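A.,

Following up on our hallway conversation. Structure tokens first:
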């Protein structure tokens, strides 16, 4: 009976120690009587020195610490971020993706895959298809992809292959939708090219010929578009070389994209943004 009683007393002692560590140890660590730690609490904890521990004492201490620490560790675990890839040319490479990441905040990670001079068409003089950026996007694993291409395709040496523009745009949308992360893809309607353009880029061709094909590619693949042209049409002063946006225009592009992604639906980690009920996008299937 004594031995059984001894073990019962040990079990009570074990539970008392675990309970004390569970409730008092966090306050003991942080210090200050205002935290609710009494002097008696501190004395009891300080008495639990390694030299006086037997296995039950040690187990009680460890269980108490684990009981306290586990919720805190779970709460501190970082949430998975929504990853966004921005595909494009020089307007993307030197412009809005960094600003977009700042605007969206910590729940997002934005990767800039813009390349200066890149063309959409496979037969272009510097084709995006040859740059291994789609493979880079695959490795990154985005949930959202934006595409802003077409301006460099309007150069004379490239637009002579305009008959392939639509098919190549459809192929790019499809390739990006079929990444293993199955992202939602957004097609950006190009911003205006002002005056006589520059670098061989023809604003009239971009607006009157390429843009309708971009819209058709989006429609054919049931992909949502974001219009950059209309909000920037009167902003010639923000495009110092007629083609490339300055910081203010890049910020405006970033804001347009940001608002389109989050204004109507609240998004959190691992949740794709909702789409407007009148502009629902369906994902392509493998």
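Then the amino acids I'd put at each of the 286 positions:
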């Amino acid at each position: 009976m004594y031995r059984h009683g001894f073990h019962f007393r040990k079990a009570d002692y074990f539970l008392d120690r675990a309970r004390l560590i569970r409730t008092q140890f966090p306050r003991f660590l942080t210090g200050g009587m205002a935290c609710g730690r009494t002097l008696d609490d501190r004395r009891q904890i300080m008495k639990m020195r390694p030299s006086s521990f037997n296995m039950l004492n040690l187990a009680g201490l460890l269980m108490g610490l684990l009981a306290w620490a586990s919720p805190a560790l779970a709460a501190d675990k970082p949430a998975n971020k929504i990853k966004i890839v921005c595909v494009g040319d020089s307007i993307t490479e030197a412009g809005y993706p960094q600003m977009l990441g700042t605007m969206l905040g910590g729940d997002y990670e934005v990767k800039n895959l813009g390349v200066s001079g890149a063309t959409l068409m496979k037969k272009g003089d510097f084709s995006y298809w040859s740059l291994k950026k789609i493979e880079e996007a695959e490795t990154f694993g985005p949930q959202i992809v934006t595409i802003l291409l077409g301006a460099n395709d309007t150069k004379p040496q490239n637009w002579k292959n305009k008959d392939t523009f639509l098919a190549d745009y459809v192929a790019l949308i499809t390739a990006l939708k079929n990444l293993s992360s199955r992202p939602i893809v957004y097609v950006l309607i190009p911003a205006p090219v002002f005056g006589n353009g520059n670098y061989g880029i023809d604003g009239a061709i971009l607006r009157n010929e390429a843009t309708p094909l971009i819209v058709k590619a989006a429609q054919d693949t049931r992909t949502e578009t974001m219009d950059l042209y209309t909000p920037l049409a009167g902003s010639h002063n923000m495009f110092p070389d007629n083609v490339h946006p300055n910081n203010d225009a890049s910020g405006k592009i970033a804001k347009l994209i940001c608002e389109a992604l989050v204004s109507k639906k609240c998004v959190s980690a691992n949740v794709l943004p909702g789409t407007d009920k009148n502009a629902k996008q369906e994902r392509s299937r493998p």
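The first strand starts at residue 82 and ends at 88. Curious whether your intuition agrees with the design.

B.
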